[in-house]
Write a structure and sequence with these properties.
Blueprint: H1 19-42, H2 60-68, H3 91-109, H4 114-121, H5 126-140, H6 143-152, H7 162-169, H8 173-179, H9 188-191, E1 195-197, E2 213-215, H10 217-223, E3 237-240, H11 253-268, H12 270-273, E4 277-282, H13 289-300, E5 303-308, H14 309-314, H15 319-332, E6 335-340, H16 343-347, H17 352-365, E7 368-373, E8 387-392, H18 398-411, H19 421-427, H20 432-450, H21 458-469, E9 477-480, H22 493-507, H23 509-515, E10 528-533, H24 540-551, E11 555-558, H25 560-563, H26 570-585, E12 588-591, H27 607-625, E13 629-634, H28 642-646, E14 650-653, H29 659-669, H30 682-688, H31 693-710, H32 716-729
Parallel strand pairs: 4-7, 4-8, 5-6, 6-7, 10-13, 10-14, 11-12, 12-13
Antiparallel strand pairs: 1-2, 3-5, 9-11
Length: 743
């Protein structure tokens, strides 16, 4: 190629083979600058008298030896420069010309040299490039620490200072003054953390020119060809090669294809490519958000850096610093950026500074960014020049869940036996990703249960579904393990039929609401709100357990003392947490003594009444939106707000048991293995002990303990003693013959 200014036209210019070859030439140039500066420093005075202080000072002779030492891994293609002579370029001009020519040749070859790429990414000037070389030199050869200490005239100052950089690179006072701007915190070298001050940031005693400089460790690794990744980010970030994964995405196929076209057209069209593209995918876990991210990146042929924002915020670095390093890493690869677990940044007003820092870093470094969360969010001006595209991912409906279950079972070869796909789709509102986790869990349970020979059973799958769908209520509810079935509860035929209808409605919900299209006719109310009303001990809690047992669903008893708060807005937050967690977990919610929370709305007389009514209105809204089963139990139906009663799909009245029902309760409440005396007369007990089923259960248990203490069978005497104790608890007396009408 033609000669370049400062080079011999007869010399063949060879492109750089790698970044190390370029750095070798740059270090030779630096050696010339240091040699020139050393001659100036040597003029300070006689240095030979320093011999007695060897190790504390650096002698001229030691410097001469260091300057004659060749740089490591010198390039075989380095153009040897002749000594300076009349009419010939200076040695520095010759090497400048050679470096410029070889850089140009390398660009034509298509090879991306790290220093040139860094300069392009951060729009560095030639002066800023040389600042990086000066600071990087000690990372390559220890001799530069001694050389810098000599030029700093201080053996303890082994890093280049701002003043030393100016000494090496500036020829005049005007150049030194103008060059100070490159060390402003807002200039690229410090703003993008390419260089760092090696002393504490609050070192007010130091002037700018006396502050030592160090190359950022990740930037040094980038220039030296180290593996990608910034170790300071730890496990909060990772680099991956995306692959298409559209099988678990709940978006309609047409919407997926539209987004793929949007991404492809945006970066194909030069008029649009100047704008960064920011997606916000929001929806529950397992709806395919990350799968679509991978598919879009695979389409564009770009790598993907994924980061967990919660881990980033909880990490050792300040969030602002970690966000900048993360987004800078995206630019260094280059790659797209996927930010997971970002909801906490949007929900908390106190996170505004973090939001702004993250948005600035994303805007500066990332061409394609994905925010993944569960809730919608508006950027509110954070992304002014970027194309911001929010995409909600829907929760799959009953028909979609059935289809996903069928595909997932087919993927594993459908080893399950007796599995009702329609029941799974209707009972557990799982997302496709959760279904895949459930199948993996069920397969593990099957192997533990029966080894490798058998497939997944229906019980394995149901247990895995319940395990995954167990919601986290944060202390406002407790799990009730259902222990009762149809044989344990004693009710009139009509009430029992109502419970069976509740179970049937839940079991066939997917058919009626989904396949038959009733879901399109209902704006809300696709779940079941049920009211159990009746005196204490008549079986309301037992009935809730019977329903849970029949449907195979988890049952949670809501602790109203933890839900209702005297602080404005806290009750609504607690209720939102309950219904949101239950929705994801397909749980049955049981509000015992619900009239304390779902009571009548009062006349507004003060601010407290107004907020109490707001809470009730919010409850109405959440109940209407809930797609599962919510059971409200009350001893006094008259205390319930009529708006709640109207929204009940079923109201089951639990009457006080008559004599025949009491006899049946006595027969079922005592386990078969309990030894009974010949004198036990259930008919007499049913006739004379006119109490509800809960009281009868307490009596039977107390009598059993009395019998165990006596070492014999449960006799009528034990039962009579237990009856007297139960009446005492109720504040009543019993003399062997109950008087008065039944309640």
């Amino acid at each position: 190629m033609p000669g370049t200014a400062g080079t011999d036209p007869a010399e063949e210019i060879v492109s750089y083979a790698d970044g190390l070859e370029q750095l070798t030439d740059e270090l030779r140039r630096l050696d010339l600058l240091i040699r020139s500066r050393a001659l100036v420093v040597r003029g300070r005075g006689e240095r030979s008298q320093a011999a007695p202080f060897k190790g504390l000072v650096i002698s001229d002779e030691e410097i001469d030896e260091l300057l004659l030492r060749p740089s490591p891994d010198a390039s075989d293609h380095f153009v040897r420069l002749p000594r300076h002579g009349a009419g010939r370029p200076t040695e520095l001009e010759r090497i400048d010309g050679t470096i410029a020519a070889r850089r140009a040749a390398t660009r034509l070859s298509g090879l991306a040299l790290p220093l040139l790429r860094l300069s392009h990414l951060f729009r560095l000037t030639p002066f800023e490039e040389q600042c990086l070389i000066v600071a990087l030199a000690p990372e390559l050869d220890g001799k530069y620490e001694k050389l810098y200490a000599y030029l700093n005239d201080d053996v303890t100052r082994r890093l280049p200072t701002v003043g030393l950089v100016l000494d090496l690179l500036c020829a005049t006072l005007r150049e030194r003054i103008e060059a100070r701007r490159f060390f402003d915190p807002r200039a690229p070298l410090l703003r993008y953390r390419l260089l760092r001050f090696a002393d504490p940031p609050d070192n007010a005693a130091s002037s700018l020119i006396s502050r030592p400089l160090r190359t950022d460790e990740r930037i040094a690794g980038f220039l030296l060809g180290a593996p990608p990744g910034d170790p300071r980010l730890g496990r909060a970030a990772s680099l991956e090669q995306p692959r298409e994964g559209l099988d678990l995405i709940t978006l309609p196929a047409g919407e997926v294809e539209r987004l793929r076209r949007v991404a492809a057209d945006h970066f194909r069209d030069p008029a649009r490519s100047d704008r960064n593209l920011v997606f916000h995918f929001h929806g529950p876990p397992g709806v395919g958000k990350k799968g679509l991210v991978s598919a879009l990146c695979a389409d564009l042929g770009t790598a993907l850096v994924t980061a967990d924002l919660r881990k980033l915020a909880d990490g050792p670095l300040p969030f602002e610093e970690a966000a900048l390093l993360l987004c800078r890493e995206v630019a260094l690869h280059p790659a797209a950026l996927c930010l997971e677990e970002c909801d906490f940044l949007w929900e908390d007003d106190g996170e505004r500074q973090r939001r702004e820092s993250l948005a600035e870093a994303v805007t500066t470094f990332s061409r394609l960014t994905f925010f993944l969360g569960s809730k919608p969010w508006r950027p509110d001006g954070l992304f002014k020049d970027e194309l911001f595209v929010p995409i909600p991912f829907p929760v799959p409906g009953d028909a979609d869940r059935k289809e996903f279950w069928a595909k997932e079972l087919a993927r594993v070869g459908d080893p399950a036996h007796g599995i009702d796909v329609e029941m799974l789709a209707g009972a557990f509102r799982l997302t496709p990703g959760q279904m895949r986790h459930v199948l993996a869990d069920a397969a593990d349970r099957a192997r533990v249960r029966s080894g490798e020979g058998e497939g997944i059973s229906a019980d394995d799958l149901l247990t895995a579904c319940r395990s995954l769908s167990t919601p986290k209520f944060g202390g406002v509810a407790r799990t009730v393990k259902p222990s009762f079935g149809w044989n344990d509860i004693v009710l009139p035929a009509d009430q029992r039929a109502q419970l069976e209808e509740i179970c049937a409605r839940a079991r066939h919900r997917h058919l009626v609401i989904g396949a038959w299209g009733f879901g399109r006719k209902l704006a809300y109310g696709t779940g079941q709100n049920v009211l159990f009303s009746g005196p204490s001990g008549t079986g309301k809690t037992m009935a809730a357990q019977v329903v849970a047992t029949e449907l195979g669903l988890a049952l949670f008893r809501i602790d109203l003392s933890q839900v209702v708060s005297k602080y404005i807005g806290e009750t609504e937050k607690n209720l939102d947490r309950i219904f949101t967690a239950a929705e994801a977990g397909s749980a049955i919610l049981f509000f015992d003594e619900a009239d304390a929370l779902f009571g009548k709305r009062s006349e507004v007389k003060d601010a407290h009444d107004r907020y109490a009514n707001i809470e009730i209105g919010y409850l109405l809204q959440k109940m209407e939106e809930y797609e599962g089963i919510a059971i409200l139990a009350t001893n006094l139906r008259a205390n319930m707000d009529e708006a709640f009663v109207r929204r009940m799909q079923a109201i089951v009245e639990f009457p006080f048991p008559d004599e025949a029902q009491r006899r049946r309760i006595w027969e079922v409440v005592i386990p078969d293995r309990v030894p009974l005396g010949d004198d036990v007369d259930f008919g007499l007990l049913a006739r004379e002990v006119r109490l509800a089923g809960g009281n009868i259960r307490n009596i039977a248990l107390a009598a059993a303990f009395c019998a165990a203490a006596d070492g014999g069978s449960v006799t009528m005497g034990h039962l009579m003693q237990a009856v007297r104790r139960e009446y005492q608890k109720l504040g009543r007396t019993w003399d062997g013959m109950e008087q008065g009408d039944e309640p």
